[in-house]
Amino acid sequence: MLRDFFLLSFKNLVYRRLRSWLTIIGIIIGVGLIVTLVYLGEGMKNAVMGQMQMFGTDLLYVLPGSDTNPLLGIIGGSEFRKRDEEAVRGVAGIKEISATNTDTAKAKFLGEEQTVMLYGGSWQTLNTLYSESLALREGTWPKNDNSNEIMIGSLLGDKMFKNKVRSGDEIIIKNKKMTVAGIFKISGDQGVDNSIFLSFVQFERLTGMSQGYSNMIIKLLPGYDQNLVAMDVKSAIESQSGSIEATVLTSEKVGDIAGSVLGIIEIILGSIAVVSLLVGGVGIMNTMYTAVLERTREIGVMKALGATNNQVLTIFLIEAGAVGLVGGIIGVSIGLGLAYLVQFAAKAQGFTYLDVSLRLDMLFFILFLTFLFGAIAGVLPARQAARLKPAEALRAE
């Protein structure tokens, strides 16, 4: 009996295919957005956690500026001083500190010029901090801060210039020849993969920036609590006379910040998806009301042949649910396609940690919800159809 109800409902949808498809489109848009949002949201969270694990959970990131808005300090050009670094070195639990500065510059390779990001720091401390997390694809780490040697990211070497850069090649930075000592393997971090690393000595010579540091990265000794050391580092910097405010980020806090940003994006896109689904639900209700008016005589015939109110109600509820289900199936397919397309594009640009994983349980749950949503939207029209009296229905034009 139930099988017959489903067959009859789908036949009615096919018979009125144009109106059905116009209604289904609203469901497709809403479900597609939800699926894309859910899968990309999970993928982005995995990407953030992957990068945190890559650089280790024993690192602290120190930035100038208030805890409430550290970006304001960076944009405003605030810098740490040499004595800030020295004060931090006195904090217990610190294995190594890399005080670095950043700038942009024109780099030329085989006559082609591009704007690149420069990171300046001590070779010894950079090697200590990143030798485990940033594997070398080719070449070696420089050892002499006075040498004209640089390290470059994988994407910069492979894609920034028309000709690929290899270790031993020369890149001209601000009219000074620098030799590529080594190239990192792709890390998934655009800040690394598209940048040039050089010693602080050479950074100051090329940029003229020798006043301070834009950030500090701290590696902890085993057994020390990140949060406690972070509090001590912040206190050591801010307790000095005339010092600026400092923000000390643990890997956990960085993950929380990234999660909060992703959460805001999810809320915005989720709201759009919900509105789209509500519009689709109104469309289903409108379609079913129109179907009841058009099929009044058909309903009268069914009742005259012995169909009960519950059977008529069931037919129309299944038909409404089928509209939601078809829209859900297509929406899920489109949403998955968009999610994997974004993943493919991201990996092509070097964001290797963005991983969209297929979860069948979630897909089936979404499809069940779309059928249920359609059925709920069709409750009122179905009740109207079930309450029609056979004699009145048969007299309808």
What features would you highlight for this structure?
15 helices; elongated; single chain; 2 domains; 10 strands; 397 residues; alpha+beta
Characterize the structure shown.
With 397 residues, the chain is an alpha+beta fold. It folds into 2 domains: 2-53 and 256-395, no CATH class; 79-243, no CATH class. The chain contains 15 helices and 10 strands. β6 and β7 (176-184) form a beta hairpin. α2 crosses α12 and α10 (251-294) runs antiparallel to α12 (309-348).
Question: What is the topology?
Answer:
Layout (H helix, E strand, L loop, with lengths): L1 H14 L1 H39 L3 E6 L5 H6 L6 H8 L4 E16 L2 E10 L1 H8 L5 E4 L9 E4 L1 H7 L9 E4 L2 E9 L5 H4 L1 E5 H8 L7 E6 L5 H13 L7 E5 H44 L1 H9 L4 H40 L11 H18 L1 H8 L3 H6 L2
Parallel strand pairs: 3-8, 5-7
Antiparallel strand pairs: 1-9, 1-10, 2-3, 2-6, 2-9, 4-7, 5-8, 6-7
Helix pairs in contact: 1-12, 2-10, 2-12, 4-9, 10-12, 10-14, 12-13, 12-14
What structural class results from the helix and strand content?
A: alpha+beta
Largest sheet: 6 strands, mixed, barrel
What is the general shape? elongated
Amount of beta strand: 15-25%
Alpha carbon gap, first and last residue: 29 Å
What fraction, in percent, of the residue positions are helical?
A: 55-70%
Count structural domains. 2
Give the total of beta strands.
10
Number of helices in the DSSP assignment: 15
Instruction: Give the SSE string.
Output: HHEHHEEHEEHEEHEHEHEHHHHHH
Rounded average pLDDT: 76
